[in-house]
Amino acid sequence: MPLKYEETGKVRSVKGPVALLEGLDKCIYGQIVRFGYETLGMVVGFNEEVVQALILKEQEPIIPGSDVRATLEPFNVPVGKNFIGRVVNALCEPTDGEGDIVADDYYNIFRDAPAVMAREPVDEPLETGVKIVDSMIPIGKGQRELILGDKMTGKTTICTDAIINQKGKGVVCIYVCIGKSNSQLAKVVELFKEHETFGYTIIVQATAAAHSG
Question: pTM for the complete prediction?
Answer without folding.
Answer: 0.83
